[in-house]
Design brief:
Layout: H1 3-20, E1 37-39, H2 46-53, H3 60-63, E2 81-87, E3 90-95, H4 118-126, E4 128-132, H5 133-138, E5 140-145, E6 151-152, E7 158-161, E8 168-180, E9 183-199, E10 203-211, E11 215-216, E12 220-223, H6 226-231, E13 239-240, E14 246-252, E15 258-259, E16 264-267, E17 279-285, E18 289-291, E19 297-299, E20 303-313, E21 318-325, E22 329-330, E23 334-336
Parallel strand pairs: 13-17
Antiparallel strand pairs: 1-2, 2-3, 4-9, 5-7, 5-12, 6-11, 7-10, 8-9, 8-12, 9-10, 14-16, 14-23, 15-22, 16-21, 17-20, 17-23, 18-19, 20-21
């Protein structure tokens, strides 16, 4: 079984165990205008379909009726017909049986629905990453080109320090540094893709295959980690983060103090906190401070203003995309598990 499949099944089981820990007495509310049947079309996402039926799309695992007889039963494809029905008083969404007619038609490879639009997720899976300070300090760096120019357009070989022997390389530029507790990581932006042409004793030459920005001396050169990328996929489904999970936004990749919908932020939780790809947090704005009789201060309840979905977890940090925001989100926003929201709050 491919590494990617094994990793995904393990992550799926982990998330489902976390989800099943939530009390099943919580009601599953279907939207009043939810369709009884729906045919999936190209361009749909799991988030779109979840939001079509549920006010809380992270409750998708409770609504979707998986088929245990097929591989990756949670996957949905364009052309699938979904039917909403009720079982033991609970709503269930399943695949409508499709009658196969003869003669048999030639099978085509179908791509399953991604959790979010590829344009939101793929750039942050393929082009951006976090690196620890130790990893950054030990990484190869761009020395320059033989012509001595500061901006390297990639027509000639670019050189990195050290004797290298791996064939595929990616050039990154360090951006913001993020810290919580004793852990520090630096956000990197992908600049170019290159391959090894010359391996020398003190430096090695790379041929640039493609680039998104001009390469600068002191940019970071990292071997292409294809196994790690294979383990990350846009095909995951929304699921709530574990009960009692709390997180904070450390900042945005672009360094802004406020973020909005569809932007990516860095969180101070990761896989060591049982956080996986697709897990959801609700965003809260701190409630106002008021004075009670006698001058005592009290803080009013926090206000829900949106939610975020983890798209790339690391050990102690995560990249997450803001899937909904009712107002600009500041860095003092609090993130809580949707499972801990009062049931009468929707």
């Amino acid at each position: 079984m491919p590494f990617r499949t094994v990793y995904f099944i393990g992550l799926l089981l982990s998330m489902m165990v976390s989800f099943s820990a939530w009390t099943k007495e919580q009601p599953l509310r279907i939207k009043k205008d939810a369709p009884t049947t729906y045919t999936v079309v190209k361009g749909d996402t799991l988030w779109d379909i979840s939001a079509l039926y549920l006010d809380s799309p992270w409750l998708w695992p409770r609504l979707w009726q998986v088929n245990p007889s097929i591989e990756n039963p949670h996957l949905i494809y364009p052309g699938d017909k979904l039917t909403l029905f009720w079982r033991n008083g609970q709503p269930v969404l399943g695949l409508k049986p499709v009658i196969k007619l003869s003669p048999k038609v030639r099978k085509t490879i179908r791509q399953p629905l991604a959790a979010l639009p590829d344009g939101l997720v793929l750039p942050y899976l393929e082009d951006d990453r976090l690196l620890t300070i130790e990893e950054l300090q030990s990484s190869a760096r761009v020395l320059g080109a033989s012509d001595g120019k500061q901006y390297l357009a990639g027509q000639n070989l670019i050189y990195i320090n050290g004797e290298q022997n791996l064939p595929q390389w990616v050039i990154y530029r360090p951006l913001e540094e993020f810290e919580h507790g004793t852990h520090k990581m630096v956000a990197l932006k992908k600049i170019a893709v290159a391959k090894l042409e010359v391996a020398g004793a003190k430096y090695s030459g790379l041929k640039v295959l493609s680039q998104q920005h001009e390469i600068l001396a002191d940019d970071i050169a990292l071997p292409a980690d294809r196994e790690q990328l294979a383990a990350l996929t846009p095909t995951f489904f929304p699921t709530p983060s574990p009960s009692q999970s709390v997180a904070t936004i450390l900042g945005a990749l672009e360094g802004s103090q406020y973020v909005a919908q569809d932007q990516v932020v860095v969180l101070n939780v990761g896989s060591s906190d049982q956080i996986g790809q697709g897990m959801m947090f609700e965003l809260y704005k701190p409630g106002a401070l008021v004075k009670l009789n006698g001058g005592e201060e009290a803080q009013l309840p926090d206000i829900p203003i949106g939610h975020v979905m983890v798209i790339r977890p690391y050990s102690h940090f995560s990249l997450a995309v803001v899937t909904q925001s009712r107002q600009p989100i500041s860095l003092d926003s609090t993130l809580k598990s949707p499972l801990d929201r009062p049931s009468d709050d929707g």
